[in-house]
């Protein structure tokens, strides 16, 4: 599973969570450059704000409720439909008319300002700017509590909006294939948006849908701020150059995709992946008999879920796929990561026992016992903290654990889906992966595929690779950011050669 979600979990369970570092909100607030290659633009954004996905940045401090800055490109669907969605999110009967127009050197912006409420009923003040670009409608917004809104309007919102400009030509890589922004609906009507890369030949092409790991992921599986590597962008480029079309899309509620990521479970992500397969099969430039799935981590659970029920999946490639329950995966993950961090075995055992009991409460849906369990642990290990701060720690851990996604993931066993997957399967594990341990998962995976009678199964472990398939030293997620920001040399050739032996490239 992705470190974006599990890092938050481990911080909460294994070590005390700490407040995010923030800069003072004054005229000296430092800014840094943010580039959005899909939208073809760049902007200045506050340094130190947490980038959660795509162009979403969060400032969280003791001085104010959460402040959200967003710089994104809206999905290619009617603007009025999208504004209706945003109106509902902000507790408005209808999205207001623009209050004014603002000209910069590069763009003409329609400006909106309004008062509303967030999903928890808290009062918010909002700035929104919309501008038309060649790629579509650009959205810049600042959502803040009223007590800090005035200070942030000029120092953040206006500065970010006025800094937006096209990327320099040298930042656009010249590629020998077509890149198309596409949208498609999932089964519940949520519109998902991504990038389809098409080989230069006429086709119809074989195609693969990329399915991301856990956490709110954009279409590139962008690892910022943990690391600069963009695994799905690298995979899409390599496979498309080899003659295979690739569709990668923003998770629901991320980037240009609609929906609420926080309310979704793995089952919803499986519906989204199946919708992506159906979308590709309906295109004239795609061979409908040669569309498969490539899933990473949690995406390696989604892929067999879809392949087991849909006759339209031609193959499955799984990067670090779990084959045992989420509870088993995360318990061992906690143990391995803590051990890599040098924690004594006695302390590791105590933390894993704590986590195991917490997971049991989550699976049972017993929020009261879960909260009491967390509170007792904090009292025992951090009794000297203020009551307010201890309550914040409890709330942080509950927010990461007592949610539909976690309950579903912990209880779900992917083995029955693997046992119904009869299409060709390639499973690739990292020998130094501490998040989805190869030894824990390879045996059950092989057993399940044997039970399916699957005669085309390849399981490979790449020595020295971590969960992102980077060349690693210990495999600890702490290394992600300072390791080489690419894959181990064997990774891309492994998946490409396997795939080209099973599809017909024209």
Report on this structure.
Mean pLDDT is 90; it is low at 2-26. The relative contact order is 0.11. The chain folds into three domains: 21-170, Mog1/PsbP, alpha/beta/alpha sandwich (Protein Transport Mog1p, Chain A, 3-Layer(aba) Sandwich); 178-324 and 413-500, Rossmann fold; 327-409, no CATH class. The longest helix is centred in the last third of the chain and has 20 residues, at 345-364. Helix 5 (266-281) packs across helix 6 (299-309), helix 7 (326-340) packs antiparallel against helix 8 (345-364) and helix 9 packs across helix 10. By secondary structure, it is an alpha/beta fold. Strands 11-12-14-13-15-16-17-18 form an eight-stranded mixed β-sheet, with helices on both faces. Strands 3-4-5-9-8-7-6 form a seven-stranded antiparallel β-sheet. A three-stranded antiparallel β-sheet has the order 1-2-10. Strand 7 (108-117) and strand 8 form a beta hairpin. It contains 14 helices and 18 strands.
């Amino acid at each position: 599973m992705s470190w974006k979600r599990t890092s938050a979990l481990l911080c909460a369970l294994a070590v005390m969570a700490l407040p995010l570092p923030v800069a003072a909100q004054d005229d000296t607030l430092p800014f840094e450059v943010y580039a959005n290659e899909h939208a073809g633009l760049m902007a200045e954004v506050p340094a130190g704000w947490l980038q959660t996905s795509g162009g979403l940045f969060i400032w969280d401090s003791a001085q104010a409720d959460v402040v959200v800055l967003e710089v994104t490109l809206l999905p290619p669907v009617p603007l009025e439909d999208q504004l209706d969605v945003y109106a509902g999110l902000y507790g408005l009967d209808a999205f207001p008319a623009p209050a004014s127009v603002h000209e910069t050197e590069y763009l003409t912006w329609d400006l909106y300002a309004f008062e509303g409420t967030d999903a928890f009923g808290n009062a918010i003040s909002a700035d929104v700017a919309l501008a038309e670009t060649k790629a579509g409608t650009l959205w810049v917004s600042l959502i803040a509590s009223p007590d800090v809104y005035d200070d942030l309007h000029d120092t953040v919102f206006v500065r970010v909006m006025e800094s937006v400009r096209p990327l320099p030509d040298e930042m656009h890589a010249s590629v020998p294939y077509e890149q198309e922004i596409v949208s498609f609906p999932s089964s519940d009507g949520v519109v998902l948006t991504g990038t389809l890369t098409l080989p230069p030949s006429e086709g119809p092409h074989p195609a693969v849908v990329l399915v991301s790991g856990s956490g709110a992921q954009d279409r590139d599986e962008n690892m910022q701020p943990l690391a600069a590597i963009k695994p799905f962008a690298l995979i899409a480029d390599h496979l498309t150059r080899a003659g295979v079309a690739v569709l990668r899309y923003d998770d629901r509620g991320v980037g240009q995709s609609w929906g609420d990521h926080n309310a979704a479970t793995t089952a919803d992500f499986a519906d989204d992946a199946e919708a992506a397969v159906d979308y590709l099969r309906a295109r004239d430039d795609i061979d409908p008999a040669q569309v498969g799935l490539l899933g990473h981590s949690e995406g390696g659970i989604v892929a067999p879920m879809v392949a087991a029920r849909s006759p339209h999946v031609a193959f499955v490639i799984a990067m670090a796929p779990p084959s045992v329950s989420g509870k088993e995966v995360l318990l061992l993950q906690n143990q391995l990561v803590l051990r890599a961090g040098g924690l004594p075995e006695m302390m590791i055992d105590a933390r894993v026992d704590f986590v195991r009991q917490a997971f049991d409460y989550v699976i049972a849906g017993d929020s009261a016992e879960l909260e009491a369990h967390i509170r007792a642990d904090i009292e025992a290990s951090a009794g000297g903290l203020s009551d307010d701060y201890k309550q914040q720690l409890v709330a942080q851990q509950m927010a990461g654990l007592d949610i539909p996604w976690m309950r579903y993931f912990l209880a779900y066993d992917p083995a029955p889906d693997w046992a119904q997957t009869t299409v060709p399967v390639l499973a690739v594990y990292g020998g130094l992966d501490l998040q989805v341990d190869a030894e824990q998962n390879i045996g059950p995976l092989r057993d399940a595929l044997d039970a399916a009678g699957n005669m085309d199964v390849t399981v490979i472990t790449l020595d020295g690779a971590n969960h992102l398939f980077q060349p690693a030293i210990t495999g600890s997620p702490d290394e992600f950011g300072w390791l080489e920001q690419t894959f181990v040399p064997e990774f891309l050739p492994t998946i490409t050669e396997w795939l080209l032996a099973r599809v017909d490239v024209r």
